[in-house]
Please model this.
Amino acid sequence: MRHIAVVGTGPAGYYSAEAAQKLFGEDVSIDMIDRLPVPYGLIRFGVAPDHQSIKNVARRYEKVALSDNVRFVGNLTIGEDISIDELTDLYDAVILATGAPEDRALPIPGADLSGVLGSAAFVGWYNGHPDHSEVDPPLDGTHVVVIGNGNVALDVARILSKTSDEFSGSDIVLHAYEQLETANTEHVALLGRRGPHQIAMTPKELGELGRLERAAPRVDPNDLPEEGADALLEPGMRKSVTFLREFAAIPESFRVDKSVEIEFDFFAAPVRIEGDGKVEQVVVERTELDADLRSQGTGETYTIPASMVVTCIGYQTPPIEGVPFEHGRGRFANDEGRIMPGLYCVGWAKRGPTGTIGTNRPDGYAVVDLIAEDIGEGAGKTGRAGLDALLAERNVDVVTFRDWKKIEEAEADRAREGSPREKFIEIEEMIAARSR
Model:
């Protein structure tokens, strides 16, 4: 029997478990470990609450989770309740699928001012992540600056710009729903260092901005390349740029009835955030592209008013004591997924924060192939039984998948009208719900 522990229960973790099931059949026992009492990671806490169709992938993960040889072990923190060395002693293979839940720091003066939030904190706030339930975004101001030109930046802009009615069917948590309902947002500026041809925005997310009830996107036609240059783009990118061209062509008469403007500010690099104790404005340098399409400053600067700044510039994996780490890349040091004997990584913890949810599937299957090469039939380790004995000795109260189903049912029962669930935002609430 082979014993595998997967640390992290988001997409990368469940795809790895699925791959191990398919490759090893009944000759594998898999424990899915999460520090939170609830599974699904990025699906629950990262995917936008108004993108419920994307969250449906969790049904596939549930099928894996309900298998006889897979077990969910929630509310177990690596480094506190158990160490990596202890896990590798118990299991033939330990896969780190912890994702990249922490914000990359914005390396400019003023980034520590009140009112400057990372996207992990802001997205976690409206998605009900326990780590960010106490975030209090300053929504009383009128101007928000969003730094970044990817889908997360679009999510933030869209969530800030929607009416209450447009959240029908979403699972945005109540505290965020109520605060956004009374927000004074009038202008959202999306800052990007490069131009329209270098965005990391997909057509679906861009198209949504053109269908908002009270908001209208704005693109400066002068920022767009010659239309003929679009032919060199891959189809998805070409469609995204087509939306930008449509936004640039929106007549001013259409904007009159819109109370929120979402402005794409291309070729714009923030160089300083200013304010007296809290953010008041962002100093931006105009950029241009060199021959390699890298942005470089021109020396020309201007200021943008800002009552809040949300940085969407990427994420990083938190280090774990005893695990080699590449601080520059924000990921575990690894060779195609191998970290050291018996220890592996997958997904964003392996690659850094790149790719989509689906990108994690081939990644999970690839790391299981490596494990098959390395561990053979297994080394007679105790695996699940050894973990249970150790946790019992330490009085660690773990959450099972059956417990999670009770939590899930409780969240559905307390949902407001039109919402699929009202998430518990405190760990204590989650644990209490399992005894209902």
Observations:
- The domain at 2-101+315-399 is CATH 3.40.50.720 (Rossmann fold).
